[in-house]
Amino acid sequence: MSYRPSHAGQGPASNSLRILEIVARFGTGTTAKEITDALQMPQATAYRLINALVADEYLVRTSDLRGFALGHAISGLISAATPPTVPTAARNAITEFRSGNRFAVHLIMFRNASLRIADEDRDYPLQSSFEMLRNPHASAAGKLMLAELNDSVPVLPRSRLTKLTPNTITDSAQLDEQLAQIRCKGEASDINELEEGVASLALPVRHADGRAGAALCLSGPSERFDAICEHADAARHLALQLEPLLF
Amino acid sequence: MAPAGAMSVIPALIFPGLALGTSGPNLLLTFGAAMTVMVMVSFCLRPMAKRMAAVSGLYSYTAKGFGQRTAISTGWSAVFGYALVAMASLLVVGTYLAEMLINLGVHLVDPKIVSLPIVLTAAVAACFLMVRGIRVSAWFTVLVECTSIGLLTVLMIVYFAFHSPEVNLGPVFQWNGNLDLLSVGIVIAVSAFVGFESPTTLGGEAQKPFVSVPRAITWTAVLAGVLYLLAATAQDLALRNAPASVTASPTPLSDLFSQASPAFAAVLDLGIAASWFACSIASMNALVRILFCMGREGVMPRLLGRAHPRFGTPSMAIMVTMPIVAFVPLAVILSGASPEQGLANLFMLGAYGYLGSYLLASASLPFFLRRIGEGTYVNWALAAVTCLALGAVLWTAAGVSIRTSNMQAFIYGGVLLASAVYASFLHYRRPQTLAGVGIYDETQEVDLFQGRPTQ
């Protein structure tokens, strides 16, 4: 039963997390007693931490009040931690599309208002993937996500609008204007905004209810942006094809 | 709870020379003790509020801790308490509004003639506000309370600014050693705190009930206690220097001010009356909530569990209880009894109801925790100390009441006995109905982590 027993000097934060681990491992209906036994923690401490977790809805009590289950507040943490999975059928469709053109083709997913790289083009890997994930305002996929976000979700704070290249949009009014255009057109692009010399075009892959859940991203040298755009119709077709496969 | 009204009326009821005779207990000590007891009760309710989103508060907690039969007694006890405080509130509204007219210079042959229609109008108005929906009445209450507390504070400061040379803090802290009267005083002082537990009835509706409800219970008790301690000190000082005609009046605080300025006193009367009007609404709201819940569960007539088709309020329960609640203050006025004696009696009787339900709910804490497998020694000790304190106060007050051949203790005892008999009847004849008592907001599918990340 014993599972990573607690050692002296561990604070309430790590103990709270270990309580969550126990409930995740033992499943719905784990009792307070099972938790204290497994963690070898003083009862009063454990009950206090458990009730704090219940208050914040990381844990919920089962209907007889005796047992615990993981609460819905945990789902945000889970989705941030797990790598997105792409079904083989979707992967094959993308691979087939890649063989038909000479640009990089990436699949980027949107999770909790941040980007996750779901399927990267192995032949033309992303050069500045960290910058892309960190600065959604600078990339085509990121701008597509920001444009699709509900208006009630606060878009990036001003301090986050970092200037990566001379072309990066750092003025929030200008960014809002461009996001409005993206919403109209249903596609986003960036030229030399994320990285000097690189341009990309992003097309939405939508859930059944219409919200965008991922972006299909085509990128290549900026001087060949027109050539990238010639593939837009084919890419849009692929995006439609991916929708039932991904969501 | 009506902090503004309570801080102006209840200390005066305990003040020596009023309801309790010349050897009344020390005001500050009485309120200090009442506050300590109430904060202890809030500590007992907290752990339960953190674990269960109750729909009808103490009643639901007791059902989970002690079982359904005791819950019935707790529920009846609370209903009794709420009803008595609502009656007393209406009586205060009548008394103070009549006093306001006198202070404004209206000549009244008999204040009764005015109090009667005022009480009647107040009851009808409260009924209207409550049937229209809790939202209207909640905002109305907050507005009235804030205005009245502000008003009272200003008036107190002004009064002491004029009388500062005579102020002597010495007697305020003196202790005359009368334990019996102290516990009677505590019982009345507790009525000022009554309703601090009402956040527990909002468990099913609050946003984050396991955070907001426990916090609300404790802070309400502490903040109200501090407010009352200040008001009690101020009034003790003010009334000690006042002539006998003032301290013997049913509206001492306003008489005190009317010596200086009748207009001031009229404003004060209006503030106090408004605050108590809000209190009557709050008590009635809590009362009908329990009755509605009991009606739904089938342990009271199903009729009481019927909601208004348009406003969704427990209109049936309101319509049935309001006439009863309005009748008693009208009867007190008609009988010609002095209002302050009537008030002290109603508050005392109501306080028995509350203290009884607090006692049962606090005692159920360790059993509740043991049932869900989270019992600790600290909670046993906490519940034991709280129950001993509550029990001692109730016991002494009941003893005094019996010795002075006052019916209060017997009336409340009768209510308790009736509830126990009724619960036993349900237990043997309609066990399924009894099993449905104490519903709470159970975990729903949507509260659970679904085993997959949200997109």
Instruction: Please report the distance between the alpha carbons of the first and last residues of chain B.
Output: 46 Å
Helix tally of chain B equals 16
Q: What's the multimeric state? A: heterodimer
Low-confidence stretches of chain B: 15-23
| Number of strand elements of chain B | 0
Could you give me the name of the CATH homologous superfamily of the largest domain in chain A? GAF domain
How far apart lie the N and C ends of chain A?
Answer: 38 Å
User: Which residues of chain A form runs of ≥5 with pLDDT under 50?
Assistant: none
Radius of gyration of chain B: 22 Å
- Quantity of strands of chain A, as a count: 8
| Dominant shape of chain A | elongated
CATH architecture of chain B: Up-down Bundle
Which shape of chain B, going by the Cα principal axes?
A: globular
* Percent of residues in helices of chain A: 40-55%
- Topology pattern of chain A, helix = H, strand = E: HEHHEEHHEEHHHEEEHH
Mean pLDDT across the residues of chain B is 78
Strand content of chain A: 15-25%
**Biggest sheet details of chain B:** none
